[in-house]
Design a protein that fits this description.
Layout: H1 8-14, E1 16-18, E2 20-25, E3 31-35, E4 48-50, H2 53-65, E5 78-83, E6 88-92, E7 98-100, E8 103-105, H3 112-116, E9 121-135, E10 149-154, E11 157-163, E12 168-173, H4 180-183, H5 186-196, E13 205-218, E14 222-223, E15 226-228, E16 234-235, H6 243-264, H7 268-296, H8 301-315, H9 318-328, H10 331-338
Parallel strand pairs: 2-10, 8-15
Antiparallel strand pairs: 1-4, 2-3, 5-6, 6-7, 9-12, 9-13, 10-11, 11-12, 13-16, 14-15
Length: 341
């Protein structure tokens, strides 16, 4: 998708190409490793690219600013939305209103446009709070067989280790009986990192951030001439990296849809966008992310063992592994969407 707008190669150059990912038992180093080479016949990019969202945003902004038809306004806060049969008008704080044929509500989890059109955002919030710690410690030099993307079970709980070009992102959780305030102190975070690898606390912890995880989705993505996309339309657990990627898929489907509407004026196509993307979000994004999170939150050692062995059987079977990776890489979801009219 990003190749179509000239962003794929620049992004790959700035990211970390990751040919496999794994689920592992931390203490024993047993693992199920999923090799993305199994989907090389399905995509020209059979790898996961580890790259911060801010890097993609910077590249996209640079591209947009070089397009004469695009005007970029930062910090333009929408205060009201009005629609008629021909257009939508956005009231902007401290600026003149903006009138257009359509408005895309891609303004995040707390979307003002979603609220303005009265779209219900139904779902739930997970009970656990995730603690994100960013560190320069080179985990790959100290843990045997580590990939760039690792979802780990440990005696004390669960954690994930995700490598970026210059740092590692560690998703941690509060210990039993520990408050979030206590768990996010530097002392508590460094203690948790020390449990993963002794000596990890000797490196700089650049950021500690706690956040809640939600699973929510709107009833429909099209509300007249306001179209919802990304986090404004759906939220899911980050387990598996499907959130931002799902939003990018929304954007491409919507861009193609609007191009067709501009060509023939058929507004019914907007309903097709909603049907396609909501079905994929429910079946291929939210459901898969929930399964990923539920699996890793398992505390029973026997059930963990059963889960790991089941994943190993999939990873070691080329046919089943390809099918699994098509789902987790969201390619199957794109194919599902194409079949929806």
């Amino acid at each position: 998708m990003l190749a179509k707008v000239g962003l794929a190669e620049p992004l790959i150059a700035l990211g970390l190409v990751t040919p496999d990912w794994q689920v592992r038992m931390h203490e024993t180093c047993e693992r199920a490793k999923f090799d993305l080479a199994h989907i090389a016949s399905d995509t020209p990019y059979p790898f996961r690219l580890q790259c911060e969202q801010s890097t993609l945003v910077s590249l996209a902004l640079e591209t947009a600013r070089n397009e004469a038809a695009i005007e970029v306004r930062m910090g333009a806060r929408v205060t009201a939305v009005q629609q008629d049969s021909e257009s939508v008008t956005l009231s902007i704080a401290g600026s003149e209103p903006v009138r257009a044929r359509f408005a895309i509500a891609a303004d995040g989890a707390r979307s003002a446009l979603r609220e303005a059109v009265g779209a219900r955002f139904e779902g739930f919030t997970y009970p656990e709070t995730t603690i994100l710690a960013t560190t320069t410690f080179p985990f790959h030099e100290h843990i045997d067989g580590l990939s760039n993307v690792n979802y780990c079970w440990a005696t004390e709980g669960t954690f994930s280790l995700l490598r970026l070009p210059k740092v590692w992102r560690c998703s941690l959780y509060a210990d039993d009986g520990e408050s979030i305030e206590e768990a996010t102190t530097p002392a508590s975070v460094t203690a948790k990192l020390e449990r993963i690898v002794p000596g990890a606390s000797q490196h700089d912890v650049q950021e500690i951030r706690a956040y809640r995880i939600h699973q929510r989705i709107v009833e429909r993505y099209d509300h007249g001439r306001v179209l919802l996309a990304g986090d404004a339309a759906h939220l899911n657990s980050p387990s598996g990296g499907m959130g931002m990627n799902g939003g990018i898929h929304d954007a491409y489907e919507l861009a193609d849809t609007l191009a067709e509407v501009f060509a023939d004026g058929d507004l019914a196509r907007l309903g097709r966008y909603s049907r396609r993307r909501k079905a994929v979000a429910e079946d291929a994004i939210l459901a898969q992310a929930h399964r990923n999170r539920t699996r890793m939150q398992e505390r029973d050692p026997v059930k963990r063992r059963e889960e790991l062995e089941a994943l190993q059987r999939i990873a070691n079977d080329p046919v089943r592994c390809r099918e699994h990776l098509l789902k987790t890489s969201m390619i199957a979801g794109l194919r599902q969407a194409e079949a929806i009219s």
